DNA sequence: CTTTTACGTCAGCCATATTGACATATTTCA
DNA sequence: TGAAATATGTCAATATGGCTGACGTAAAAG
């Protein structure tokens, strides 16, 4: 069967599109796929006991990371529509993991905060995922934390990087006003 | 649900005191999230023109990588049910990206092969994703390809690694080049 | 006072996954 | 040979997480 594929690959060389380059990095592609799958799998297992999914996790994570987040900012970070957010956010509000307070200067805004319960869940999920990173980095010969950060950052669209960087390392929402 | 939460909360405290969990690696968590999102976004944009989604991509990718794959093997790799696979696979067969032949020794088996058209699409998608890796690795000071592979592999569940390694390199991890 | 902004909501659609039950062909084994 | 195990297909119902479009409302900004 490998012969069949090779023969066919040769015969169509002329018809290959402009996208064709050197040998594809199948190993990196597949390792990234499986690594991410296991990474989110940790959180999935913790969440399914409470009846939440990944959508809830993402919302809770960013609300916990940036307490006082506005709806519009959250939509921008997640890249989803307000209708999509609404069902998930409503469940988080109803079950008391997140709470919303009207903005001080602008009372149209609903600023989102984690409740103590929501904060604990968010930290448990983050700890779980951090432990995977710690284990992984600990398996590597030298300290690979810096290189890992550099690699992951380099994988992000250059145009997106500033936004991501300020989200990851930037100021908290309290100083924003 | 309250019980689950309470137990969960206590286990968190225990973990904090005994395992001395340091501050969660929010940066790695979020960078991994955004990196993976951009990574799959490349393929998503190419696929949506033909009306395919990520599910089609995953099936086509592994069929292209391992021509002659059996249905059961594919289900095992993807970790989904046959009912989920069926619709997607049917569309790939109907549109002529994948073809199925009965097994030689066991005619119950349906061995899956990429058609020339399917092979080209799979390679276009892989090339697109490879270019992101090449760009990313090229931005880093020293050659980071080996370290990147090691890091991604370390992120995968230890119990899963041998399976992933033989899938990626067709051999065990020790003999990986 | 009008417009814009920030948000909520209803209604319907699509894609991807799930489980359970049942059908069919084929191979294997007692 | 006849029974059981295997590989796969299929029908039906359900969940989740997204989408678009349209419409409503309260508050801020001009």
What does this protein look like?
The structure is a homodimer of 177-residue chains. The first copy, chain A, is mainly alpha-helical and 177 residues long. Chain A folds into 2 domains: 41-139, Winged helix-like DNA-binding domain superfamily/Winged helix DNA-binding domain (Arc Repressor Mutant, subunit A, Orthogonal Bundle); 142-170. Chain A is 64% helix and 7% strand. Chain A contains 8 helices and 3 strands, in the order αααβααββααα. Chain A has helices at residues 2-11, 26-48, 54-65, 71-78, 82-94, 116-139, 145-155, 158-169; strands at residues 69-70, 98-102, 110-114. In chain A, strands 1-3-2 form a 3-stranded antiparallel sheet. In chain A, helix 2 (26-48) packs antiparallel against helix 6, helix 3 crosses helix 5 (82-94) and helix 3 packs across helix 6 (116-139). The longest helix of chain A is centred in the C-terminal third of the chain and has 24 residues, at 116-139. The radius of gyration of chain A is 21 Å and the shape is globular. The N and C termini of chain A lie far apart (64 Å). Residues 1-19 and 172-177 of chain A have low confidence and may be disordered. Chains A and B meet through helix 1, helix 2, helix 6, helix 7 and helix 8 of A and helix 1, helix 2, helix 3, helix 6 and helix 7 of B. The first copy, chain A, binds a DNA duplex (30 and 30 nucleotides) through residues 53-55, 70-72, 80-84, 86-88, 103, 106-110.
């Amino acid at each position: 069967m490998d012969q069949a594929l090779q023969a066919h690959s040769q015969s169509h060389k002329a018809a290959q599109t402009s996208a064709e380059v050197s040998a594809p990095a199948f190993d990196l592609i597949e390792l990234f796929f499986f690594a991410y799958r296991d990474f989110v799998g940790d959180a999935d297992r913790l969440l399914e006991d409470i009846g939440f999914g990944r959508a809830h996790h993402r919302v809770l994570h960013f609300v916990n990371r940036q307490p006082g987040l506005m709806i519009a900012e959250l939509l921008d970070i997640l890249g989803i529509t307000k209708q999509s957010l609404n069902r998930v956010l409503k469940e988080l509000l109803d079950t008391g993991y997140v709470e919303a307070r009207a903005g001080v200067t602008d009372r149209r805004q609903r600023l989102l905060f984690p409740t103590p319960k929501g904060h604990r869940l968010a930290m448990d999920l983050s700890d779980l995922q951090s432990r995977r990173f710690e284990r992984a980095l600990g398996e590597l010969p030298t300290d690979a934390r810096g290189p890992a950060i550099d690699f992951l950052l380099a994988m992000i669209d250059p145009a997106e990087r500033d936004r991501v960087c300020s989200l990851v390392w930037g100021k908290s929402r309290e100083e924003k006003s």
